[in-house]
Structure to design on (145 residues):
């Protein structure tokens, strides 16, 4: 069984530590924004390591919208490639953990609808898209029946 390897970003690893270590009762927001965060547990496509990625909580019914923004950086985050390689993830939303399957949203009508929901939940996503010429991928996580 592969082990968990923390993010190389200290503040991210610390949030995961607090969120998971408290069983989903602390470390639940993006710094002091009050905006909710989820933790996506995914498998490193290269190392097989267990990775835990905090993302903004953007819900669409019982689905979650995952936005590979990485602050508008020129390249997609690593976790995007992990999810493409293995779509089976766990999403922790506070004290609840769900088995979910992820797919990239490619249909333009669906993407437009989900992007609008994401930007409403976290307006900086639009700023991030404006500052990079890469199209920020949207993935949707759906509960595994
Ligand atoms: N990032 C977003 O993109 N969107 C969000 O909405 C978001 C919200 C958010 C809220 C709170 C918080 O604390 C962080 C938040 N982040 C958000 C940041 C997010 O959690 C990630 O840190 C960020 O997106 C970068 O993701 P990353 O997967 O590129 O992480 C880097 C820093 C990392 O951990 N790199 C590792 C390393 O050793 O360099 C490798 C990680 C990895 O998955 N490696 C793969 C493997 O096989 O193990 C291989 C990957 C490859 O392609 O080589």
């Amino acid at each position: 069984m592969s082990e968990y390897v923390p993010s190389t970003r200290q503040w991210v690893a610390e949030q995961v530590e607090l969120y998971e270590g408290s069983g989903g009762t602390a470390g639940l927001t993006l710094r002091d924004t009050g905006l909710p965060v989820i933790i996506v547990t995914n498998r490193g496509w290269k190392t097989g390591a267990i990775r835990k990625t905090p993302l903004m909580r953007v819900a669409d019914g019982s689905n979650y919208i995952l936005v590979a923004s990485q602050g508008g950086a020129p390249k997609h985050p690593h976790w995007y490639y992990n999810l493409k390689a293995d779509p089976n993830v766990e999403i922790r939303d506070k004290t609840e953990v769900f088995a979910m399957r992820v797919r990239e949203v490619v249909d333009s009508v669906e993407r437009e609808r989900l992007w609008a929901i994401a930007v409403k939940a976290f307006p900086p996503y639009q700023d991030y898209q404006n500052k990079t010429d890469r199209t920020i991928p949207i993935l949707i996580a759906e509960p595994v029946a």
